[in-house]
Amino acid sequence: MPLFVLTVESVSGCNVIGAYLNEKLIKSAAAEYVEKQENVVFKKKLLKKDDEVKKVLYIEDVKDNEKRVCMNVVEFELPSVNGKVKKVKDLNAPKKGMSAFMLFSNECRSKIKEENPNATFGEIGAKVGEAWKKLSEKEKEVYVNKAEKDKERYKKEMDVYTESKATVSETVTASEVTTVTEVVTEKPKELKKVVKKK
Asked: Residue 73: pLDDT above 90?
């Protein structure tokens, strides 16, 4: 699985800005970084570097102290749990809608904790479950309605999120690819590479 690492390299050294799961995310992060730089003019050019899996997305328009925003691609494998590959959680995705029970639990957990200060986490959970079972259908309906609204909220936010991910503009085109000479004196710290077993 490829991991896209965003670095900023100059004569003075190299800084890792972040790691991303796809090329669109890293390109939008690179554009965001470039926009935040004050008094620095970057060229929007894709500069391919030799045979390495490294692309320079932006280059500063100053010849004596060149600065580049680079994309490094690292192949890695997620650690497996019981033979299954661990799924990567998208930290930028909206929070999922809560169930009726979870909404009830959030509301009454602190009250139960106050009544039972020495209770363990498991004991408090059991008491919350008992309290939920004791509720009438009419009382539960309030939480079911809240859960439905939260589910709708999640659906709307997810639609906006997936649309925004799909419409991230491509900042470079294939016609802008050129070669450059190496000016960075220090190489970035190498990330641990794990070779996939065949």
From this structure: no
Q: What is the pTM assigned to this prediction?
A: 0.42
Residue 37: Cβ-neighbour burial (10 angstroms; 0-12, 13-18, 19+): middle
**Helix crossing, 100-115 with 121-134: angle to 10°?**
120
Euclidean distance between CA atoms 129 and 102, whole angstroms: 10
- What's the number of CA atoms in the CB half-sphere (13 Å) around residue 156? 6
In the 8-state DSSP scheme, what is residue 176? G
Which CATH number fits the domain that encloses residue 123? 1.10.30.10
Question: How many other C-beta atoms lie within 10 A of the C-beta of residue 93?
Answer: 13
What are the phi and psi torsion angles at 34 (to 5°)?
A: -60, -40
**Could you count the other beta carbons within 10 Å of the beta carbon of residue 72?**
21
Which domain covers residue 99, as residue numbers? Answer: 84-165
Using the predicted structure, report yes or no on whether residue 165 has a pLDDT greater than 70.
no
As given in the structure block, the two tokens for residue 3 are 């991991």
- pLDDT score at 88: 66
Look at residue 86 and give its three-state secondary structure: coil
